[in-house]
Design brief:
Layout (H helix, E strand, L loop, with lengths): L1 E5 L6 H10 L3 E5 L2 H5 L3 E4 L5 H10 L2 H10 L3 E5 L1 H4 L2 E4 L5 E2 L4 E7 L14 E6 L1 E2 L16 E6 L1 E4 L6 E7 L2 E9 L2 E4 L7 H19 L1
Parallel strand pairs: 1-2, 1-3, 3-4, 4-14, 5-7
Antiparallel strand pairs: 5-6, 7-11, 8-10, 9-12, 12-13, 13-14
């Protein structure tokens, strides 16, 4: 299976690439649409600010390319900032439009609960996922007992379509969408490649789902 990791200058490409190789994938890390178009599925990683990322994608022609590939029913996985870019808009730095594959807005953690309790921002470290639904790639799968994943983010998705929510984490009474799915587009707010056995399990199941789609 050939997986394309989209290189637009704002991602932890090495860790994602190595995780995919350990799962026996043929990996292409590229900013070249022709090379990426020849893959079975695409991964959009991301670290940094939402407006910078969307600007880089637009300037390189990768935004239009990603839209074309999704319209052509290619599987797409967004990781961390890459997941946030898949929503309608973000308030980070300045209001910025995203891809709009998912309903909802990316908003900063307030740092304070409704009861006035202060908490740390960013949401950084290990947290558990609570599954609300099962996308096709998780159907008939028994989830491991340990479901901790590793988060590093100051912004999260709000006002999303509940039907698109697969799993969430709780952070000081804030529901943090952790996995979302809409048809052939998936997003993971955490870093599956840095989330131990459970993260590898989720990444592997998504890849197996890609394999089913491309057979």
């Amino acid at each position: 299976m050939k997986i394309g990791v989209i290189d637009y200058g704002m991602g932890n490409l090495f860790s994602v690439e190595q995780a995919l190789k350990r799962l026996d994938c043929d990996v292409i890390v590229s900013a070249n649409p022709q090379e990426l178009a020849a893959t079975d599925a695409l991964i959009l990683p991301g670290v940094g600010a939402f407006p910078d990322a969307m600007r880089r994608l637009a300037e390189t022609g990768l935004e239009a390319f990603i839209r074309e590939q999704v319209d052509a029913n290619k599987q797409l996985l967004g990781i961390c900032l890459g997941m946030q870019l898949l929503f309608e808009e973000s308030e980070e730095v300045a209001p910025t439009k995203g891809f709009g594959f998912f309903n909802g807005k990316i908003t900063r953690f307030s740092g304070e609960t409704s009861h006035g309790e202060k908490y740390r921002v960013p949401h950084m470290g290990w947290n558990t996922l609570e599954f609300k639904s099962s996308p096709k790639w998780l159907e008939d799968q028994t989830l491991p007992q340990s479901n901790y994943v590793y988060f590093v983010h100051s912004f999260f998705a709000t006002n999303l379509n509940r039907e698109q929510l697969v799993a969430s984490a709780d952070y000081f009474d804030t529901e943090v969408p952790g996995v979302v799915q809409a048809e052939n587009v998936c997003g993971m707010q955490f870093h599956p490649e840095k989330s131990g056995e459970f993260g590898v399990f989720l990444l592997e199941q998504w890849l197996k789902g890609v394999g089913v789609q491309t057979c």
